[in-house]
Structure formats: structure tokens, C-alpha cells
Amino acid sequence: MSKPLKASGEPGSEVKPELGEVENGDTFAHDDVFGVISEDGPNYRNVGWLGTSILMMKTQIGLGVLSIPSVFDTVGIVPGVILLCVIAGITTWSDYIVGIFKLRHRHVYGIDDVGQLMFGRWGREFLGWAFCLLFVFTAGSAMLSTSIALNAISMHGTCTAVFVAVAAVILFLLSSIRTLGRITWLAWVGVACILTAVFIVTIAVGVQDRPAAAPQEGVWKSNYKVIQSPSFTDAISAINTLVFAYAGTPAFFSIVAEMSEPRHYTKSMILCQSVVTITYITIGVVVYYYCGSYVASPALGSAGPLLKKISYGIALPGLLVSGTLSAHYSSKHIFVRCLRGTRHLTANTAKHWITWIGSTFSVSMIAYVIASGIPIFNTLISLVGALLGTVTCFQPMGCMWLYDNWRNERTTRWYMMVAWSGFVIISGMFLMVAGTYSSIVDIIDSSGSGAWSCADNSSSV
After folding, report:
1. Mind listing the domains of the chain with CATH numbers?
2. Does position 56 have pLDDT exceeding 80, yes or no?
């Protein structure tokens, strides 16, 4: 018989069975997603509530926070804060629905299972591919930002294509850690590093005479704008950049599936979203207020050459962890899809290891090709937010509420929630179509460095 498993963050306590799970004496023996779990294989139910919140924060706070000031430069401070709060509100509701849906449907592991429930096989395939591509693209963005960091630190010590390849190798190795419980410590490090780096830049631009990119002669005053008048394509690209900053929502399915106590999910999510939103507003407003149109994107290059090196050096582990989690989520999705329902999912067999390493290697290689093929940071994250962010963060969650509540009593609250769910679905569709068009236009018009380029991609940031 398997030995009892312990819950992460609660020394000496055993993992308790939830609805849909089977208890065998004092032994946690079965999970609706992973099947039999024992000490003979990896423990996929080993993340405490605080570790869950940190994983969520690191999934959210990463590449997105580095582009918030440039969004404010596009639309202005006041519209920027309003839009950020609107996106935060919608995604927080979506995050909440993820937890509720998981508790009601314990066999759900990822957003593809949700698609299967609501729309059948085509829904499973469509949302499954959207999830994988979202986080593969995000991993590619992390590789690209890592190459920018390495260029900044080393003063373009070697070909940029080499730095992207180095990032790919590191992400492959770290993402191959099999359980989120064992990756939690990396999330702690990543959150601490990225927040320290961005707050260093935030403080620095406030005390310096002028940002690095501003004219260095004569009297200088920040040219920030309270309200801007962007073109339609620029405005939509800015909104989808904000969507990308909150696009960790579909990964929350994977995180709650590995919680030792899923009923604590909402508490973890609220802590995460509160910290993320406060951080985004603070950094966006302060950096843009002091830098104006001379803000860099990623924002770490806004405070001059020395602080650029320091901030990128501190942020580097955080950028790598962002890529690690993104690669892990998409790899785990493929892995579970291949082995679910077999003993190989939780047993240390040859098939288990070949499938797992094959998944992480494939995801890392595809992300590397994306990072090398679209070497423009702003354009890449806007494209990801537009094409894949809304379709995994907005529309499915509106449909999930309707799926679970359509037959409920027709009260005033029910009609209001139906209207809200419809708004989330329709707004998501609009942002997806318009944002994808805007991002494609930006890519065509971009004059950035070419694919697999050796040029210094940190020189303009």
C-alpha cells in the first residue's frame, strides 16, 4: 500500500480527499485528474495556498509589467489606469470562475477539459491548442527578454542569437522539474527579483534629472500626457498588451489541480490579483510620469546605462522563471493529455520520463523559434495578448458561468450575470479580432532587427 502523502505548507498534515477523490484508510490514493498518487512517483497534489498565490503572481508579474509604462504612453495616464482596472476586474472574475468550476467538476485539469464539457471535441481541441500556443509564445517572449537582459549586462558580449539559445537551454532544464510543488521556490525567487528590479527603476526615474533617452542638454520636463489620442490600431494594441499582463488565467486551472487543498484557491487568487494590480498601477504611473514619451519598453532600460545593467541583472532570474513556468504549463498540458488514464502519469516508468522530457524539449524548441523569428518585444506580447489572451481569459469563462447556471431560477441577479457573461464573451471576441489585426500591421511596419539577428536588441531600450 502507498504511504500517506503530506500537504505542502502544513508540516505533518496529510492530504485530505476532496469531492471526487477516493480515500483508502489514511492514504490519499486517487485524484480525478492524476489517478493513483503515491510516494512511488511524483506528488502532483503538493502546493499550499501561499505557494499557489506566489505561482499565480509569477505567472502574472513578469513580461507584462515591463510594458505597462509604454501602454500609458500610448493612451495617457488616466485612460491607462482605467483600462488597466477594467482588464483587472474582468480577469479577476474569470480567475474566480476557474476556481468555482474546478470545485464543481473535479475531473477538469485544463481549459481543454472545459471545452470538452461545453462544446464537445472541437471545443477541447480549439481551447487546448490555444492554451498551449499562449504559453509557448509567452515562453518565447521570456527568451527574448532574457536575451535583452544578457545584452544589457554584457554590453552585447556576443551575438543575440546565442543569448536566445542560452535562454532556451536554461528554460528547458528548469521547466523539466515535474511538479509545481517543487517549482514554488523558483516562483518566490522570480517574484522577488522582478519586483526588486522594476522598483529600482521606478525609484531611479523619480530621483534622476531626466530619463536616459531624453535630450541631455538644456532644461527638460517630462512630456507625459494625462490623455492621449492614439490611432485605433495603437489603442487596441495597448489594450491587448494589458490583456497579456493578466493572461495567466488559463494557467490557474493547472495550479489549482496541484493544490493540496483546492478550497483555498479563492483566497490565493484574491491575494495574487491585489498585489499584481497595485504593482502595475504604481509602476505604470510613476515610470510614465517621470519618463513621458522617453519610456523604454521593456521599462528596465529607462533609467540610464548603469541602472539598466543593475536592473536587468537583478531581473534576470525573474525573467527566466517567467519562461520556466510558461514552458512548464504547456508541457504539462501535453504530458497529461498523452498519459491521462494510465499508470505512467504518476509512476516513474520509462514511458513517463520519455513523454515528459519530450514535451518540455518540444515546447522549448518551438518557443526558441518564435523568439528568434519575431525579435520585437512590444509587438510579440501584443500579438500574444490579442490572438490568444482573450480567447483563453475572457470567452471561456463567460461560457463557463452560463454552462453551470443557465437552468437556475430566473432572478434579477441571474439576468445581471447573464448580461455580464455576454459582455465578457463579446468584448473578448472584439479584442481578439481587432487586436490581432493591429498586431499584424505592427509586425509588417516594424523596422526592428531581423530573425536570428546578431544585432544588440537592448540598444534601444
Report:
1. 47-214+223-445 (1.20.1740.10)
2. yes
